[in-house]
Amino acid sequence: MIEIKINGTVYKKKFTKVEWGGGIYGSSRKLNVDFPTSENINVNVGDNVEFKLDGTETLFKGKVFTVEKNTDRKNVNFIAYDNSIYLNKNFFVKNYFNRVPSEIVKEICGELGLEVGRLPKDKVKCTFPAINKSAYQIILAAYTIQHNKDKAIYSVFCDNGKIEIADQGVLLEDLELDSYNDLRSTRYSESIEEMVNQIIVYKTEKEKQQIIDKVANEEDKKKYGLFQDVVEYTKDMNNIFNARDMLKGKQSYANVIANGNPDLIAGYSVAVKEHDTGLIGSFLIKNDNHVFQDGDYNVEMELIFDNVMDKVELEQKEKKKKKKRIYNFVEGEGWVDEED
């Protein structure tokens, strides 16, 4: 049974359709609810909303952003987002110097009035400017720096109203989706449209560019042709590892509809056995959408094969250009230097 609490008032069995979902790349979890006007549920923009099922803890906690009333359909719809929406909606001007990632998260969330939950151990100090960047981009920049050091894959999400950083791709234990019992439909595809099979590492010295290294997937180059990108050398990163991170092979995607299970949410990996397409293995849930309608519960998911972190390109501090000195001979004064 669905239970939705609006500003402390609990409503049950009153909804035409409920959708609850989210994704791993910067998107907030969303609750989309339809109900008949005859149910006389009081909901307004700005109301606090919680969502759960029988036998579960609170699955969603957020705020109503949109309310729509339709007299033709005699229907009311409202949409709510969890607190991570504020990370996408607020932009800052910051300049960080030797700050650990957890300090950056706490500072940003403090300015937004958001609670902070679990954070991983700090392993780096961050120095970067963030001009007109969203809170999400700033936090992700800090953990991109940490990822460049430890290769862990970090994800920003909201749990019970608190902003947290988690390891992405943890396998859901004791849960396997089998085509005979759990999967309702499957669509599987492969593509090389996003392929990058060679990275050139270059360095800038005295305003001149010099190629210093190259990382490539020779097998993919031979089979599919050359798809090349470039990355600038920076002394505080492992540039070869970073270049290898940028390589992208053949991309495989699967879209499945499974029987409803609240554990199937973006950021986790799930075991799948789909016998007709041969989709067998563990796959990362990129997006999920849980649908409750007419007594049925299913979950639509996009699965991806590679666990890749959502990273931001770090801004570089502008280097001061050295000023030339010009020396002129002035009668009575000798040689005088002037700035160019």
Explain this structure to me?
Helices cover 14% and strands 51% of the residues. The protein is mainly beta.
Short summary of the structure?
By secondary structure, the chain is mainly beta. The chain has five helices and 23 strands.
- Class from secondary-structure proportions: mainly beta
Overall average pLDDT: 89
Give the termini distance in whole angstroms.
Answer: 76 Å
Summed up, the helix count is 5
Measured by DSSP, the beta-strand proportion falls in over 45%
Give the SSE string.
EEEEEEEHEHEEHEEEEEEHEHEEEEEE
The beta-strand count equals 23
Helical residue percent band:
10-25%
Low-confidence stretches: 318-324
Q: What would the keywords be for this entry?
A:
340 residues; mainly beta; 13-stranded mixed β-sheet; 5 helices; 14% helix
Write the layout of secondary structure elements.
Layout: E1 2-6, E2 9-12, E3 17-23, E4 30-36, E5 48-53, E6 60-70, E7 75-82, H1 85-89, E8 91-99, H2 101-112, E9 115-116, E10 126-134, H3 135-150, E11 154-159, E12 162-167, E13 170-178, E14 183-191, E15 198-205, E16 208-216, H4 218-224, E17 228-232, H5 239-246, E18 251-259, E19 268-274, E20 279-293, E21 296-304, E22 325-330, E23 334-339
Parallel strand pairs: 9-12, 13-19, 15-17
Antiparallel strand pairs: 1-2, 1-5, 3-4, 3-20, 4-7, 5-6, 6-7, 8-10, 11-12, 14-18, 15-16, 18-21, 19-20, 20-21, 22-23
Helix pairs in contact: 2-3
